[in-house]
Specification:
The chain is mostly helical and about 325 residues long. The protein folds into three domains: about 60-190, no CATH class; about 190-220; about 225-335, Tetratricopeptide repeat domain (Serine Threonine Protein Phosphatase 5, Tetratricopeptide repeat). About 70% of the residues lie in helices and about 0% in strands. It is built from 16 helices and no strands. Helix 1 runs antiparallel to helix 6 (about 130-145), helix 4 packs across helix 6 (about 130-145) and helix 12 packs antiparallel against helix 13 (about 275-285). The two termini are about 40 Å apart.
């Protein structure tokens, strides 16, 4: 969805198709550069509407009253720092980063992230004539990283996902590579640093071996679903989503006791996690604990009222407790 903005940014630098100052970008000679982005803009708007509809249909959107605009902007700024930091220091990686309860400490961190991003942007804008590549890379990072940030309907939000950061951070790899190349040419031209070639080769070898080792270790994390979410919990023990997904793997393997344990942890961390309440109720009902299951079905329905399948199972709980009228009422609601 951010592709049109990225194409415009690339036209400005490094392609330099938008010639002259910004006041000359909208002259008749430059219109073709802008008009060729219109098809991409139309596609982007279409995909934006589809994505919005899909997110709303699964209840994955928060209203501005629930999640205020300043908090959303702060999350976006912090997410950009998170994506950059995890790319520069690729350790403690997780399939998702779940935001803890939004307390004052996190809000202050949002403000600091926003101030930091603004300061960096202004500094690079001031130095744009001497170092335009850095400002272009920052713009690409911001636009691409937006695609990896999303807001969830539950109390916690997912900052980003590592597998979505490859494109966002590609520009930094190009910038660092270009900078090292220019430094290399400068040192070679002076002929006064005979040790540079050996140091440069050593740096390249150590970097490649280090990143290769980290890649191999990370590939083991993605061996199977259970290993992936166990690793996510090890990295972020407060991730209700990770506990829920791990519970699903045990539920699929028909290991009811283990599934109940992880679903309980998920709803303990995030009491407004409707899907976790429902899955926990399923397992409790299968375990022969209909009274406790009923409580979690009720909680799930309070959070997400439009759940026909849950309503039917809830009616089964009423029937199991010999409350026939209540069961009939719930069956009729489901129908």
């Amino acid at each position: 969805m951010t592709l049109p903005a990225i194409l415009i940014l690339l036209d400005i630098y490094p392609l330099r198709r938008s010639k002259g100052g910004s006041q000359e970008w909208f002259t008749p000679e430059q219109r073709g550069v802008w008009f060729e982005k219109v098809p991409f803009l139309i596609l982007a708007c279409g995909f934006a509407l589809i994505a919005l509809s899909a997110q709303r249909s699964v209840g994955a959107l928060k209203t501005l009253a629930q999640y205020e605009l300043p908090i959303r902007l702060g999350q976006t700024f912090y997410g950009v720092f998170l994506v950059s930091g995890k790319s520069i220091f690729p350790v403690q990686l997780s399939p998702l980063y779940e935001l803890p309860l939004l307390d004052d400490a996190w809000k202050r961190l949002f403000v600091l992230a926003a101030c930091g991003a603004l300061a960096i942007t202004l500094g690079l804008y001031w130095a744009r004539r001497r170092w335009p590549a850095a400002l272009a890379c920052l713009g690409l990072l911001h636009h691409c990283s937006l695609s990896s940030l999303r807001y969830c309907s539950k109390r916690a939000a997912n900052w980003s996902r590592d597998r979505y950061s490859y494109l966002a951070c590609l520009s930094w790899a190009v910038l660092i590579g270009g900078t090292l190349f220019n430094v290399s040419r400068l040192t070679d031209s002076t002929k006064n640093f005979p040790w540079v070639s050996g140091a440069r080769l050593s740096f390249v070898v150590v970097t490649m071996l280090s990143l290769g080792l980290l890649t191999w270790k990370q590939s083991l994390v993605w061996r199977d679903t259970r290993t992936l979410w166990q690793h996510a919990i090890a990295v972020r023990p407060d991730s209700s989503t990770a506990y829920y997904n791990l519970g699903k793997t045990f539920e699929t393997a028909a290991k009811v006791d283990q599934a109940i344990e992880f679903y309980r942890r998920a709803v303990t961390i995030n009491p407004s996690y409707a899907n976790a309440h429902h899955s926990l109720a399923d397992m409790l009902f299968r375990k022969g604990l209909p009274v406790e299951a009923l409580a979690h079905y009720r909680k799930a329905l309070q959070i997400k009222p439009m759940m026909p399948r849950r309503t039917i199972i809830w009616a089964c709980c009423w029937r199991y407790r010999a409350e026939i009228e209540g069961a009939l009422d719930e069956f009729q609601k489901a129908a």
